[in-house]
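Wed. Picked up where I left off yesterday with C4-dicarboxylate ABC transporter substrate-binding protein. The coffee machine is broken again, so keeping this brief.
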Amino acid sequence: AQGSGTTRLSVATGQTTGVYYVYGGRLAQVITENLAGVEATAEATGASVDNIKLVARSDTYLGFTLADTAATAVQGTGKFTEPQPIRALAYLYDNYTQVAVKGGSGIRRLADLRGKRVSLGAPNSGTEVTARRLLQAAGLDPDKDVRGQRLGLNESVQAMKDGTVDAMFWSGGLPTGGIKDLTSADRDVRLLDTTDVLDELRAKYGPVYREVLIPAATYGLPGDVRTVGVPNYLVVNERMNDELAYQLTKLLFDHKADLVRGHPEARKLDPAKAPATEPVPLHPGSLRYYRERGAAS
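Structure written out below (tokens, as returned):
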């Protein structure tokens, strides 16, 4: 959207107590303060699927997305009826699959969720995509074998506190405000080790999934928790002006310290790792930046 010489951009983020929203809000501020003639605002959304649909409709959007959701967008599968015109600016950081269960529920692994009341994440969120795949990898049908509810992060946390669900899925950075709130309010809440399904996930969907560790101190847990990690990408429409895409990519690294003040996950910004956005192609403007840095061929 051009008007009075100002380019207006929107940053499609996620739910208000999630990392995308906090990180994206800071990113919009940093863009507005540092790119001449550009104003950016952050929007709360349902997250990955919603964000890709917004980006696909307009070259004025930047969107945060999980790599597994982005892969289906590029292929035109899952929630997408045709390949979406998206390009990546950068790999940002990993999302951690956080499956919270009530203490005393007897739930020790994903397969134990059979017959339980489970929040699978908000409709059209990356969390929902990942949750369904994890359940299937554990041998469960998400539509029949669990009593699934499609709740956003805030609603899931409240349902756990109220005892109306036995478990909840969340895919997010560390720490996620909503999960911190839950573990502080209920010291018996535990996070599941989900890595027993990692081989099955990778066999079906490829190396987009990897093992990551949630340190005990993140949420005051009794021990570290191994779980499935998924990369996060920042994506734009393939039609975005090359120079603008270049400037936005450069800004991520030039103003990394400003972004870290918004959320600590921005510490993971690394020009050597950022071009790894498979299977989403890099935007030509971003590619030019990484080539100048010697980080891409």
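Quick read: The chain has a mean pLDDT of 96.
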